Amino acid sequence: MPLPWPTFTTWSRIAEGDRLALSDVLAELLAHGALLGEQGRERELYLLAREYQVELTEYLAPLHLLLVSDPDRPIFFLRPMPADCGLTARFNKAETLLLLTLWRMYHDARLELAAPAVLVTANDIWQRLKVYFEHIEPPTAAHLREMLSKFRFRRLVRVQWNEEAGYFGDTQVEILPTLAHTIPFQDLTAWEQHTATFLPPAPVAAEAGAETAKEALA
Asked: What does the alpha-carbon distance between residue 35 and residue 78 come to, in Å, rounded to a whole number?
């Protein structure tokens, strides 16, 4: 038996025929953090969410969740408030490094291309991980697949798996704009500052100090 509909004023205005579908909208947002409205049933839910955006926003506010609409694509996503990065609170270290890599790939691709879709392969991602975090052991194919599956559930990526033995690297990954909104770095400098926390300290200062000491002894 369904629970009673909320009685507060805002939600009492919602048409009887829209209530079940609006419940589905909330379930999708709270389960996955985003609603992708590009096709099928999700398209219908997206259009309904757009119609009742004010009511949804007011409902989510006490949970400290901000409902945000992507300006370029039919996507709603939730942003926890206050709007800090908060990566390590929700993801482990390996997942955080992968998210940082995907954010940078998305950022660079959008600078170079006007197309809204950013498509890469699993091998592209693995190679970038090695570039950005060269002192950290990159994930195995199985671990990378596990993390991408989690990000797909969170509506951060779309994945078309290549199931042919030995060809996992050809798996197609679309980095969705929800990822850039979930990790709201204002610019590349902010990304670099956060990424630096996972890198070993640079020995430059120590070497410079040693050279100074040699000069003083001389």
From this structure: 9
